[in-house]
């Protein structure tokens, strides 16, 4: 649940089985699961101790997509490669903005996003990205 993107193999199972041991998910499971799939679904999984299928996890929005087991690693690496071509400062900034959306009221989140957006416009990578777009070429980011 702490991943930015979750790909699942078609036979994957997801759960919070700690209740079966007379304890609770103590490493953030109660806090993160409710934010990911809502209170009712989280309570059902946590209170029952039962796991859910990859299909159900997808329906709940817990995973981004499901792939055949033999392809899931390849698909994840492919996504990582597509992400890695972007500017590192831009990636860090967009992650901060998206992650704050879960924690902040909308008006505060919009203010934060605006500040991050304006700051990103001042980076060398943004200037390079815009120039590359206008010149119809691939950008050469320097992570600055």
Characteristic terms for this protein:
ClpP/crotonase-like_dom_sf, Lyase 2-enoyl-coa Hydratase, Chain  A, domain 2, mainly alpha, EC 4.2.1.17, 2-enoyl-CoA Hydratase, Chain A, domain 1, Enoyl-CoA_hydra/iso, two-stranded parallel ribbon, 4 strands, flat
Can you give a write-up of this model?
The chain has 144 residues and is mainly α. The protein folds into two domains: 7-82, Alpha-Beta Complex (2-enoyl-CoA Hydratase, Chain A, domain 1), CATH 3.90.226.10; 85-134, Lyase 2-enoyl-coa Hydratase, Chain  A, domain 2 (Orthogonal Bundle), CATH 1.10.12. It is built from seven helices and four strands, in the order ββααβαβαααα. It has helices at residues 29-37, 39-48, 54-59, 69-84, 88-101, 106-121, 124-134; strands spanning 7-9, 13-14, 52-53, 65-67. A two-stranded parallel ribbon has the order 1-4. A two-stranded antiparallel sheet has the order 2-3. Helix 1 packs across helix 2 (39-48) and helix 5 (88-101) packs antiparallel against helix 6 (106-121). It is flat, with a radius of gyration of 19 Å. The model has no long low-confidence stretch (mean pLDDT 95). GO terms for molecular function: enoyl-CoA hydratase activity. Its EC number is 4.2.1.17. One of its GO terms (biological process) is fatty acid beta-oxidation. This is enoyl-CoA hydratase. InterPro entries: ClpP/crotonase-like_dom_sf, Enoyl-CoA_hydra/iso, Enoyl-CoA_hydra_C.
